[in-house]
Design a protein that fits this description.
By secondary structure, the chain is an alpha+beta fold. 48% of the residues lie in helices and 18% in strands. The protein is flat.
């Protein structure tokens, strides 16, 4: 826990506020190791926040702290802690975690969140022509579905009516009869419909998209209109179902009662025919677009103010009067972003965005791919590749498969080992699938992973703030380990030194005045007996009374003794310092309780055992101060006064 607190303070606050024109200047050196202005400025801002005022006093105070920090890090390196494998592995674990999070958050998540927020401000009215093609379909059915949607698209391109083509060919029968009309939708759509959402927001009004794929099949989408997003409204309703001979008489009479000032909730409870809501005064809760009948939705969102109610509205279920309670307002942007982030990682848009990131990386680097080597590798395979028995050929050629400049190379064997490890994917392929198709599919995933790994390895060069964080992690690990060895372990394990420190400072560890009290319980329903016992308690020892009254297995009097400090929360309820005094008796049925002051304990020294935690903490402080003095003697610190003075702003 200490290490986490030490290392990961505001780990993702990337606020580099480098002094312009000074970032390469050396502020001070420790044992000839430079600390630049940019490094000091970054740490100063990060740890001081709004209090980083660049005053002389503030800068001097932080310079002293950071110099001591650097001295401890230098000592850790002098002890060889930076070569300890355990600590190197720990640092590498931090680097991988930070790099992965940093890359995904900065390059993928943030852009996707921005996209959702921007899109969710607009409702889009769409129609579609649909051809079913779920992933569980056979290859033949999937190919037939793809051919069908492409044929329909071709007809549209030749001028055929979208509405007529939807009625004739769309396999979504509910929307087909309406010319493909689906109504309004808003981002973000459920998982499996990201391409649908993309087409919805990128297709101009009045036009249709190219065929796109969802988890259900193929769609051609036409955008009819767009409007500001309606959001979510909280409502109640009164429902009167349609009889065999529909009549609005009953709903009209209820509307008139409302107009006279009758309570909406009471009328809903008494007359509404919706069994799910009439027990809750008609309360439906929050709803957004496309949840209820269009007529119901339109009528509800026409209500302008909280408390307004509609005139009777007809839907397929009957006649409604709708009351508005509130509109959901998303005013906490940070909370909304966190909520969206939790959703996008489970959605295919995340995978699509990562794929886009890989494409961007490939465009930015000088990537050389040896496709001939991949083809040769494929030619050595047979059906056994699709089984768990397959092994990497021992005689595989030692040739480059991927190369970026002179710094990053991956051999063909590395890809073969990747294929071996990914048994799950190899077994998932149908044995009739051509080997080149399967290998290329695996290679694409391999390429994606290697490009992301390459980008992660270069984050320190690309982003100065990432480099700063990694320096913090590394030095934090070294500081923790050195301090543990030189201060914390010594303080807790050096029993002789701790005893000596206690004896020299024991007057710093004192008990204040305390009371020894007895919490007494008397069990009796006899008021006269209670009064007699209370009278004796004030004069006699409680223990002797217990011997007199607790006979034949009856526990009339019981007592517990405890020590009370003056700072205790119940100290003010006691007759402090008055030996023999008792508190007011608290009675419940036949049980009576009170507290008696037995004795006053004067100020006294705490024993080493009683104050051990405080003594160890103070001993640690002493050891650390002595350690700093020793470090200053061992390692030379040189401050560039002119550079330091240039940082002062007031």
């Amino acid at each position: 826990m200490v290490r986490i607190t030490l290392l990961i303070v505001s780990a993702f606050i990337f606020s580099v506020n480098t002094a312009i024109g000074q970032s390469d200047q050396v502020l001070f050196t420790v044992n000839d190791h430079d600390v630049t202005v940019s490094e000091f400025d970054y740490i100063y801002n990060k740890n001081n926040g709004e209090e980083a005022d660049y005053s002389k006093e503030s800068l001097e105070e932080y310079l002293d702290l950071y110099t001591k920090f650097k001295l401890k890090v230098e000592k850790a390196k002098d002890m060889g802690l930076d070569t300890v494998k355990r600590l190197q592995n720990e640092l590498e674990g931090y680097r991988k975690q930070l790099a992965s999070s940093y890359l995904v958050d900065k390059e993928v998540s943030e852009k996707l969140i921005d996209e959702v927020i921007e899109r969710s401000a607009t409702d889009v009215e769409v129609s579609h022509i649909f051809v079913a093609s779920p992933s569980s379909s056979s290859i033949q059915k999937r190919e037939a579905a793809l051919e069908k949607i492409n044929t329909i698209y071709g007809e549209l391109e030749r001028g055929k009516s979208f509405s007529e083509m939807a009625k004739k060919f769309s396999e979504d029968k509910r929307s087909a009869i309406k010319g493909g009309a689906l109504g309004f939708y808003v981002a973000m759509l459920p998982a499996g419909f990201y391409e649908f959402e993309n087409a919805m927001y990128t297709t101009p009004i009045g036009e249709y998209s190219k065929p796109i794929k969802s988890k259900l099949g193929h769609h051609i989408i036409k955008v009819t209109s767009k409007r500001p997003a309606r959001g979510q409204m909280e409502v109640s309703h009164i429902l009167i179902k349609k009889a065999q001979k529909p009549s609005t008489a009953k709903i009209d009479s209820l509307y008139k009662e409302l107009e006279k000032g009758k309570d909406f909730g009471k009328l809903a409870t008494e007359y509404s025919e919706d069994p799910n809501t009439n027990t809750k005064a008609g309360y439906l809760g929050f709803f957004g677009i496309n949840k209820f009948d269009k007529a119901f939705e339109d009528a509800a969102f026409k209500l302008k103010s909280d408390g307004d109610y509609s005139s009777p509205v007809e839907t397929q279920f009957g006649y409604h009067i709708i009351k508005r309670h509130s509109m959901k307002v998303e005013d906490d942007l940070a909370k909304r972003r966190r909520k969206i982030q939790g959703s996008i990682t489970k959605d295919e848009r995340f995978a699509a965005a990562k794929k886009g990131l890989v494409k961007k990386i490939i465009e930015e680097v000088d990537l050389q791919q040896n496709k001939l080597a991949l083809a040769k590798f494929t030619s050595t395979l047979d059906e056994e590749f699709y089984s768990y028995k397959w092994k990497v050929p021992e005689n595989i050629e030692d040739i480059d498969l991927l190369k970026i400049g002179d710094d990053y190379t991956k051999k063909l064997r590395d890809f073969a080992e990747y294929c071996k490890k990914d048994t799950k994917s190899r077994l998932r392929y149908n044995k009739s699938t051509p080997l080149d198709e399967s290998v290329n599919d695996l290679y694409e995933r391999y390429l994606d992973e290697r490009m992301l790994a390459y980008e992660e390895s270069n984050l320190a060069n690309k982003y100065p703030e990432f480099k700063s964080l990694m320096r913090e992690y590394e030095e934090g690990i070294l500081l923790f380990e050195a301090t543990k060895m030189e201060v914390w372990d010594k303080a807790s394990q050096d029993t002789v030194g701790l005893e000596k420190f206690y004896m020299e400072n024991k007057d710093n560890y004192m008990w204040g005045e305390r009371l020894e009290v007895e919490d007494v319980v008397i069990n009796t329903d006899d008021k006269k007996e209670l009064a007699k016992i209370l009278k004796k308690v004030k004069k006699s020892d409680v223990a002797s009374l217990m011997n007199s009254y607790n006979k034949d297995g009856n526990e009339v009097i019981s007592v517990e003794t405890r020590i009370v400090q003056k700072e205790s929360k119940d100290a003010d309820k006691l007759p402090w310092g008055k030996v023999g005094a008792i508190t007011d008796v608290q009675s419940k049925d036949a049980v009576h309780t009170f507290t008696k002051v037995k004795r006053v304990i004067p100020n006294t020294n705490k024993t080493l055992k009683e104050a051990r935690g405080y003594i160890i903490a103070d001993y640690q402080d002493l050891l650390e101060k002595n350690w700093i003095v020793e470090l200053k003697k061992s390692f030379k610190v040189d401050l560039n006064e002119d550079v330091f003075n240039s940082l002062i702003k007031k």
